[in-house]
Every structure is written in C-alpha cells, then in structure tokens.
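COURSE: Structural Biology Practicum
ASSIGNMENT: Worksheet 4, Part C
STUDENT ID: 0417
INSTRUCTIONS: Below are two proteins. For each, the amino acid sequence is given first, followed by its structure token string. Answer the questions at the end about the second protein only.

PROTEIN I
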Amino acid sequence: MTTPDYRTPIKNKIGGVFIPVRNLEKAKEWYRKILGLEGGEEYFGHVFVVPMEGTAGLILDAMPKWRKEDGDISTYQVPAIQFLTNDIEAAYQFMQENHVELVTEIQDHFYFVFKDLDGNLLMICKEAS
C-alpha cells in the first residue's frame, strides 16, 4: 500500500489560540489572574499575546475587523478551547473562589465548562497521566 504524498508548506503545528474579547485591558487582567499568566506583548492596539506551554501563545484579540455593525463581536458558544489541570477539584474550587461563571459542575471526574468575561465558553480538563 502506498502512502499518500501530503507535502504542504503548512506546518502541523498550532501557532496560537485566538479568543475574541470586548475589552482588551479587562481581559488581560482576568486571564492573568485565572491562568497565572506573566508577561505578554500588545500589538496593533487590539492584540495581546501571552506565551503558553503547548502553543506559541494565547492571543486575546479585540478583533476590530470582525465586529458586527453595532460594534459587538460573536463569542464562542461551545467550549472550543481546553485548558489543562492536574487537579480538577482544586481547579473547580479556584474558579468558584474567583467568582468565575461556571456552566457545568465537574463532569465524569474529568472536566468542567466556564465562561470568561465576554461569555466565551471554555473548558478545564484533567490532564491524562
């Protein structure tokens, strides 16, 4: 059996994850607090990039070119991004203590879903050992 030739100039690597935010300054502080982020750089007046493990970085973007006529932007209505933890119970308690809006309780002893300040649905999962 011959293996197909999939030569492409596109790398099999995720460079970053974009999260649409309404207020970049508030989002920067919230994500720093919740994920323990340090550093980061702002670009073009609407993009903030913070290095993270596993990708080139988490990108908070006010997305001026993608806004609706009324100036609003769409948010993720399904949990499209998964953050990892070694202790799902401690992560859930941390989110409660920080008044993060929790959408689910811990499911299957493995994950839970929450909302960021802009209403994006995100997920915390227990890292597979």
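PROTEIN II
(use this one for the questions)
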Amino acid sequence: MFHYTEQELAHMPLVEGAIEVTAAVDPSFPAGWVKVQLDRLAQEAEEALLDEPNASLRLDGLIRLFYREWGFRGDHEQYFSSDNVFLDKVLERRKGIPVSLGAIFLYLADKLELPVRGVGFPTQFVLKVEWYDAEPQFINPFDGEYLSKRVMGAWLKGHRGPFSELRSEYFNTAETIDILARWLTVMKSALLREGLFTEALRCSDVVLDAFRPGDPHEIRDRGYIYQQLECSHAAAMDYEYFIEQCPEDPAAELLKLQVAELHKEPLTLH
C-alpha cells in the first residue's frame, strides 16, 4: 500500500513525488542513488553559474548546461519506453520525455532560485518562466527550446482538431498531484506495452490509493491487468464494479461477456 496521502504529495517538489511513487511501483528502484545524482547535478550547476547575478542569463546558462554540456535530450526513438519515466534510467541515459526531463530541470532551477514552474499543457508537460516584470516564457523540456503560444496552438490543433483554441487555464501552473497522476498514467501504459504486468498492477494500485480512489475506469484497467496475470476472479470483480458504476459505457456490455467467461475459470490463489 502507498504510504503518502494526496495532501502530502501535493506539497512535494515534483521530482521528489516522482521518486516516491516510482519506489512504490518498483521496490528495486534506487531512490537513494537518484537523490545523490540530483544533488550532484545541482552542485555542478551552482558552481558553474555562481558568478552570474542576472537571473535571465543564469537560466540561459542552466539550459546550456543541461541540454548541451550534460547532453540531456528527448528520446525520439523510444518515446514510450519505461526507461523514459523511471528517473534512474533517465539520469543514466540522459534521455527522457517532457515530464521526466522537466522534473529534473525544475529541481535544478529551484536550487538556482529561478522562477520556473511546470504547466500541464494538454499535449505535453511544459516549463513556464514567470518573470516579475515581463510576460511568461515557455520552454519545451524535451529539447530546451523556447516555445511561442503560436507553436503551442498548433500542437493543440494537431492533438484535438483544427477548431481547438488556446485557453488561459492551459498555461496555469500545474499542481504536483495532477502531474504525478499523468506521470503514472504514462508509466502504466509503458509497462503494459512491455508486458510488465506485475509492475503495472502496482502502478494502478498507487493511482487508486493516492490519486483516484474508487475511479471506475482505473479499476477497469486494473481488471485487465489482473486478467493478464491470470487472476480471473479478481479481474471479474473489477469488471463488475465498472459495469455497476458505468452501465451506459459502451464497454460495459462487452465486459459482461468477459465476466461470464472469467467466472467459469477455476479459482487460482497467488
């Protein structure tokens, strides 16, 4: 069982929350090593930018350090790999996706007292720089490039259709709890794609413990995982819960057939 409440997670920096939820999903996750590596990078960044008093130039220096000198970059070739969401693998490979790279960058920016925040833009995680005397700037954590709202508008149209329009709430600073929930969704999808069903089950359990207790769609997904693990009766119970909670959902009728078949299978104790 996950030992943190939603309120406790909400007050954690994003990278610390990610470490805690990942350790719950994978007991072998080297949380201590990850923390040591993050501290080492923060110390290197502080030493490299110690003599730069201008915050804007310090931010440019961190971008240069992170993406050019240290070589962090988005993984174009294996975007949906679980290696891109587990922070130990991201730190080892210097590759990730926007949310994992962005979490590390946010950690370093905070150490350098830079006004960088996270934004849960509909298409991907984005970094927002909030200068007190200027309009916010936006950075793509996938490559460290500055983003215009025009580009983000094009992203949105590509994602939701040509009539989609930018809304002011899309640029609001994201709550840690919301980003962690999205992170876990990506993690679960990657684990399922790789056939790592035991880890995917732990991922689903963390979501249900700390983020979406009783959510019928998450419980339906957990039922699918149980089915892959040949826990037929547990799968049937989760499917039945979904059918009861969402009787009008198009998937409900199909799941009724699944439940009938699952109840025919002998009870297996794991």
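ANSWER KEY EXCERPT:
Q1: The domain at 6-171 is CATH 3.10.620 (C8orf32 fold).
Q2: The chain has two domains: 6-171, 214-264.
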